[in-house]
Design brief:
The chain has 156 residues and is of the alpha/beta class. It has a single domain (2-154), classed as Rossmann fold (3-Layer(aba) Sandwich). Helix content is 31%, strand content 26%. It has a seven-stranded mixed sheet. The radius of gyration is 14 Å and the shape is globular.
């Protein structure tokens, strides 16, 4: 599935639709270059879970931030500064992935071989006139079901 976002507001709303369909243990992996909208999408997901979007920031030197104020806890990973996947293994990342909350991972490509087998992949691409293209791929039965629900709710 592919969607064109025409504004920050569109991207936030797409995140809210995604959040509406999430359940505990879900993993959303975001891929895209700097400035492609990954953090904006994470803010929309947070807002859709009932977490204030201004709490979602790109942490400079923090790999993960926990937000427990919403319908489900949100574990926001920003792996931009991750040099070696072993560094994330040392903090017990899998405990977050398979817990009571939702994991949203920016720069998920940095996980390399540690990437989970099943997840919802969202690739974000910069397009002309401040537009963003979001390309969704599902890995695993749960995520195929999730993607179908998101597709229905967005109406594309």
């Amino acid at each position: 599935m592919e969607i064109i976002s025409r504004s920050v507001s569109d991207t936030l709303n797409i995140g809210k639709v995604i959040a509406k369909n999430l359940q505990k243990g879900d993993i959303i992996c975001l891929f895209g270059e700097l400035g492609s909208g990954k953090t904006v999408l994470a803010k929309g997901i947070a807002e859709g879970l009932g977490i204030k979007k201004n709490r979602i920031v790109s942490p400079s030197f923090v790999l993960i931030r926990e937000h427990s104020q919403g319908r489900l806890p949100l574990y926001h990973f920003d792996l931009y500064r991750l040099k070696n996947p072993k560094d994330i293994a040392a903090i017990g990342y899998e405990e977050y992935f398979y817990s009571e909350g939702v994991s949203v991972i920016e720069w998920a490509d940095r996980l390399k071989s540690l990437l989970p087998r099943e997840f919802l992949k969202i690739e974000l691409f910069l397009r002309l006139d401040s537009k963003r293209q979001l390309k969704f791929s599902a890995f695993g039965r749960r995520y195929k079901e999730l993607l179908g629900r998101i597709h229905e709710d967005i109406g594309h």
